[in-house]
Amino acid sequence: MVPGAHAPGYYCDAALQLMRVFGEEIGSRGYVGIVTVDTIELIGGRLPDRQQRLVEAWAEIHQAALLEDWDRLQGGRTPFKIEPLR
């Protein structure tokens, strides 16, 4: 996961549909973003523009691994490590 990222979880939107998401916290600046894994878009919180683009780029590159880790977590298994953006 990206540095400071939270483990995948779920977000319940207004339509009460469960979405695969992960969160990214940027240092101590108080920024937190919630990004869908399926569509790679910010659905909650706020990130500075540059960091949002980096998080989205990383998630696009690793989308298959994120989805696999999501399935592993739902099955009670440990997720695989995903390389950070370099």
Give your account of this protein's structure.
The protein is built from 2 helices and 4 strands. By secondary structure, the chain is of the alpha+beta class. The chain has one domain. Strands 1-2-3-4 form a 4-stranded antiparallel β-sheet.
Instruction: State the major sheet.
Output: 4 strands, antiparallel
Placed side by side, the strands forming the largest sheet appear as 1-2-3-4
- How many distinct beta strands? 4
Order of helices and strands: EEEEHH
Rg is 12 Å
Which stretches are low in confidence, meaning pLDDT under 50 for 5 or more residues running? 1-19
Gross geometry: globular
The overall pLDDT average reads: 75
Strand composition percent: 25-35%
Task: Output the structural class.
Answer: alpha+beta
**Count of DSSP H/I helices:** 2
Q: What portion of residues is helical?
A: 25-40%
